[in-house]
Request: fold
Amino acid sequence: MSEPSPGLGSDETGLLVVGVDFHSAELELREQVALSGHEAESALLEIMAHPEIAEAALLSTCNRTEVYLSARERQKAFRVALDLFARNAPEIDEEGCFFVLHDREAARRLLSVAAGLESMVLGEPEILGQVRDAAALAEKVGSSGPILDRLFRQAATAGKRSRRETGIGEGAISLGYASVELSRQIFDELESRSLLIVGAGETADLVARALHDRGNDRIRFVNRSDERAEAFQERFPIAERVPWDDLVEAVTESDTVVTTTSAPEPILDLPTLKTVMRARRARPLLLVDLGVPRNVDGAAAGLENLFLHDLDSLQSLVDRNLDRRRQEIPRVEGIVTEELQRFDEWQRAREAQPLVARLHRRAEEIRRQEVASVQDRFPSELHEELEIVTRALVRKILHHPSHQLRRGSREGGRARLDLARQLFQLEEEESAEEQES
Amino acid sequence: MTTALDLAPAVLLVGYLLVTFDYGLTFFSRTEPRVRPSVGLISVWSLHLVYLVLLGQEHDQFPATTVSQALTLVGFTLAAVYLLLEWYNGDRSTGFWTMIQVSGFQALAIVLRGPVPPRSTLFGEPLFGAHVFLALLGYAAFAVAASYGFLFLSLYSELKGRRFALFYGRLPPLEVLERMMTAALVVGFVALTGSVLTGGFWMHREEHQLVWNKDPMILLTGFTWALYGCALVLRRARQWRGRQTAIASLAGLGIIVGSLLVVRLMLPGFHLVPG
Reply:
């Protein structure tokens, strides 16, 4: 894919995105082209040094690196972006390692990314913040301009609307968050509930992080090994360690217990849990067993007010949630199309702006000439009044045509712009301006 | 006035159906915010209140003299109890299940509409009207409690059985359902207590020769009152949790409905008192 896509003419201006994501490249390559905040800043400055690029923004996350460009010369702008990738990953030119989109499709790409449609985990929430960060960085560096600024704002709107108006971001899709989601179906005011994690490994990390993200700071944990317990506590200083010998007492006091050990035998058997449930006096207990092999005796599932879930049930919950998110894709795509249409309308209205300005300049020129030719016939004390009256006259006459030109352009009426050029003889002025530039 | 009163039940039915649809959207789509004021329900319910007041004025008696009037009053009290619970808990995701019942009662009230009998001295008595209203409010609250009992048990069984089906993710947490169920039980018990007291006071004042232990309706009311009273006491004393309370609510409603049907078959009216 070393050659640009066929739509890239050598001298066309327009929007362009060159990127690498999990569809086009393996993780290793994505890691090579990924840019940290500081690197992205330098890269943007470097890109902007090329005169064929008018505006630039860079979106770099763990799963994608995408360069958005408003190009004066598309072919050259494409090479600049590709060279940026090739610097750290020379193999980028290999077939299918990157993608190129232009104009409307480039704009749609950013809107879809912000809406979560292009994420590895469909509808994940972090991407919207990352899109905003990319826009902020471009603004800070000065590489942003009216087109990319507007496009990123439209993308942020698409992202917000997708999450607010559809279920694309609903339901937990990781084991840690699925445990939190289960808790939310049992307990009110989860933030004030006590949680016990049994184990201190990677899974314990995931659960602790998910709960901490949801504002729960009452986390306790038990672990046999001091070394792992200390490492866990370093990662989660808010977590309180409970001695292993107090495990049963800690389970009795907690609302949610998540077990994550790899102990060969169940650490919570049926008689123990019967005692626990008696002591709790029918207070519900959520027991999430993420251990392999299982840490909790499966027979405990029959105890009243004890909700026992294991890896299989959590996986089925995650699958169900992902399936629901997939069902929301058409609705999100509808939102993306709506926001894309708004962006298109804005761009077309923008096209009318220079013509409207020219029309006003031409009218002003005629007004001045006419006023100058008749000015002497009026007493000098009326000259100022003559200026005011003629200016107001011109303004009033041009108000409606200007409005109609902007509106016509927004609605895709290029013919109306051409007609205005002919009617008001603006073509000559246009060609004169072009020659000057 | 008569034309407006004739049209009102149909207008109310349309209003309640729209409200049911709105709550249905909240429950099934899960994308609407769960906490927002039920402007639609408050509007229709207020209209219902105005209708009942005008109906009472038109016939100069408490508007529960016909089956149709009693049914629309039941719908009205069900909506009132639900509104109270929604205001208390700030959760509107369960409204659909009560609004189906309200719409059903209102539809039945239209279907079973008949001529209003001549003014009865019994229903012209304000104290007797209060007695009937409180009784209906009490039974409506028990019906709402049973609805929450059903929702609680459904979600409980999905969570226990590790099935994430219709109710999972659409209902508030079990603890909230339990709180709403208990609140409905308390409202019902207080209203029924009020009904027993006003009924007893009215009987005493009118010097009715009614022998309380021979009137099936009085016996039924007393039994219901004792049943729910026991359930509330046991809940506190034996630390009953949601599941037991939910089962008790459903069983209680079953007993009430069954007994009412039996009483209805035994007597021409609800009481032995001549109306």
Remarks:
- Chain B touches chain A at residues 29-31, 155, 159-160, 162, 164, 168-169, 171-176, 179, 239-244 (CB under 8 Å).
- Residues 235 and 244 of chain B are 8 Å apart (CA to CA).
- The two ends of chain B are 27 Å apart (CA to CA).
